[in-house]
Amino acid sequence: MYDYSISYQQDDCQSTFGISYLLDTQLFLDYERTKSRGIQKTMNIASRLTEQARKQPHQKAITVPRKTLFKTGYAYDSLTFSELEERSRQYAIGLKNMGFAKGDRTLVFVRPSLDFSAITFALFKIGLIPVFIDPGMGKENLLRAIQQVRPIGLIAVPEVHILRLFYAKAFESIKYFITTGNIRWGKM
């Protein structure tokens, strides 16, 4: 069993993110072109990110809201295609070095953020199977789903790692534990 950490700053806020519409449109158009020519081509969204980072490195790829210091609204953080490519590449290298292999199922419990996108692309880059389970499905269903999937990796916020200590049976297949975010105990 291994424990690792990925750090990023994330306030507790409801946030959404979007990957550039251009990326999705281009992927569809390329698929249609290869399909019409009878070419069998394996498509991986991570290769599209790499291509967009090469073609338009300074264009925004994702934008996520974050609460402002005085809770007067939201400010926005973003990554360009080249920044997202580099961050996801670094995460992919780290995951590979830990021992993850193509086809490994990896449970992801990360709040929507810049790192959520980078982590997801990193998983695709090395052929891992990301498993996203809706925590709103209730505790028993959630734990049953985790047991049925039998992931070997868990990338999650600290709260999930604390909960896994109380429900160890559901997480027994997991070999690699990766923590994202920051744990804050009281006022610092």
Characterization of the model:
With 188 residues, the chain is α/β, with parallel strands linked by helices. The protein contains six helices and seven strands. Helix 2 crosses helix 4 (114-125). The model is unreliable at 1-32 and 184-188 (pLDDT under 50).
Which descriptors would you attach to this protein?
single chain, 188 residues, five-stranded parallel β-sheet, two-stranded antiparallel sheet, 20% strand, globular, alpha/beta, disordered C terminus
List the helices and strands and how they pair.
Layout: E1 2-6, H1 21-36, H2 45-55, E2 60-67, E3 74-80, H3 81-98, E4 105-109, H4 114-125, E5 129-131, H5 139-149, E6 153-156, H6 158-166, E7 176-180
Parallel strand pairs: 1-7, 4-5, 4-6, 6-7
Antiparallel strand pairs: 2-3
Helix pairs in contact: 2-3, 2-4, 3-4
CA-CA gap between termini:
31 Å
Percent of residues in helices: 40-55%
Q: How many beta-strand runs?
A: 7
The helix/strand series, from N terminus to C terminus, equals EHHEEHEHEHEHE
Largest sheet: 5 strands, parallel
Poorly predicted tracts of residues = 1-32, 184-188
Shape: globular
Q: What count of helical segments does DSSP give?
A: 6
The portion of residues forming beta strands comes to 15-25%
Largest sheet strand order = 1-7-6-4-5
- Rounded Rg: 18 Å
Mean pLDDT across residues:
78
Structural class, by secondary structure, is alpha/beta
